[in-house]
Design goal:
The protein is built from 14 helices and ten strands. It is globular and about 85 Å long. The longest helix has about 35 residues. The chain is α+β, with helices and mostly antiparallel strands and about 375 residues long.
Length: about 375
């Protein structure tokens, strides 16, 4: 819990991080319990969103009963772009954190209205996707203190044993694929590799209990951890876009396919999105894109007509604000340099003459205030 508070305090110091990382408000101890107050996200999590949309299996793909997509093409791209932007902020050397538990349950949705400059009214509602739950966040320079999150989204290089050379898929599938995900084991903290077998026996005897977070391989580096976040993002996007169960066990199950480069392309996606997801899932972590690479990928740079209009409105607003501030500064300077009687004479001239500096000054101030 303290790790989460520290991570939130670090990110809260940087304005850019607040856009796609849940904002931190306060933390306090009361009755021997630590409470963390964060930004309210009215849309819940993506996990809740998927559960609210009733899935029906059709041709091995889960869709809504009316045949509509589980997640629209725009939502797919928005989620991909927003989470990548959040990871870019976390991975930036100035902040220097890795999340290590990217999954639908940790991505939260907030509704934001936009302002139509032409109509001067609030119009539409945009959904902003934010990374939350920084309980496992670790500094990129201290990989030895890191723990992996949900085993359904962890990359293969993070699954290797203490020697960092082998991956026992059987153990991981027993831990994370066969047991129903209903609750978290009340045990937490680092779990040494040598104790995993004993803990596995304990967990297996407790129906409906999900295994605890575990310590990661000692050979993991800062770059490996950042690329592990990218892999988790890839798994999450594969799950969102396909509707498939990522915990299918066995040699031909999706769990192993996602980690060995054998996952099939998803049908019906916008051109290029499959390729970007597959790059995030590359078994060789050195070949995966960084969060910054994802953001400049052409498939995510393509925007709809409405998005282009909104971006043009924002640019128009910013340009108007800059021009208003420049005019205000100019008028203030002229007012200081000119004699008071001359300024007064200008302000009393007829507005119809079009030479009233006083009226012009008032209009500019009102414009700037309106833009704010």
């Amino acid at each position: 819990m303290l790790r989460e508070v520290i991570a939130h305090q670090v990110t809260s110091r940087f304005a850019d991080a607040g856009k796609h990382i849940v904002r931190y408000s306060a933390a306090w101890v009361e009755d021997d319990h630590l409470y963390i107050q964060n930004e309210y996200c009215d849309g819940g999590s993506i996990d809740h969103l998927l559960k609210r949309r009733k899935w029906v299996k059709q041709d091995s793909v889960y869709v809504r009963p009316d045949g509509a997509e589980v997640i629209t093409a725009k939502e797919q791209k928005d989620i991909f772009r927003h989470v990548a932007e959040g990871l870019r902020c976390l991975h930036d050397p100035i902040i220097g954190l890795v999340h290590l538990d990217i999954k639908p349950a940790n991505i939260f949705i907030k509704s934001e209205c936009t302002f139509d400059v032409d109509a001067e009214v609030l119009s539409g509602e945009n959904k902003v996707y934010k990374i939350g739950d920084l309980g496992l966040a670790a500094h990129i320079n201290t990989p030895s203190e890191a723990e992996h999150g949900d085993g359904g989204y962890v990359s293969q290089e993070m699954m290797n044993d203490v020697g960092g050379t082998t991956c026992d898929y059987g153990w991981w599938e027993k831990e994370f694929c066969l047991l129903p995900v209903k609750a978290c084991l009340p045990l937490s903290g680092l779990v040494p590799h040598t104790e995993r077998a004993n803990r596995s026996q304990q967990v297996s005897s407790m129906p409906g209990i999900f295994p605890p977070h575990s310590s990661i391989s000692q050979n993991v580096t800062s770059e490996t951890m950042k690329k592990a976040d990218i892999f988790s993002l890839g798994v999450m996007m594969y799950q969102i876009c396909s509707g498939r169960n990522i915990r299918e066990s066995g040699e031909d199950g999706l769990y192993r396919k996602l980690r060995t480069g054998r996952a099939e392309d998803i049908s019906g996606l916008v051109p290029g999105l499959n390729g970007l997801i597959q790059r995030c899932l590359d078994p060789d972590h050195t070949q995966r894109p960084s969060a910054r690479d994802i953001l400049v990928d052409k498939v995510l740079l393509q925007v709809s007509v409405s998005e282009k209009k909104h971006q043009a409105q924002l640019a128009q607003r910013d340009a108007a604000l800059v021009a208003a501030k420049a005019t205000i500064a100019q008028l203030k300077n002229e007012a200081v340099l000119r004699p008071p009687l001359a300024v007064l004479a200008d302000t009393t001239q007829s507005p119809r003459a079009g030479t009233s500096r006083g009226a012009k000054f008032v209009n500019i101030v009102q414009l700037a205030q309106g833009i704010h």
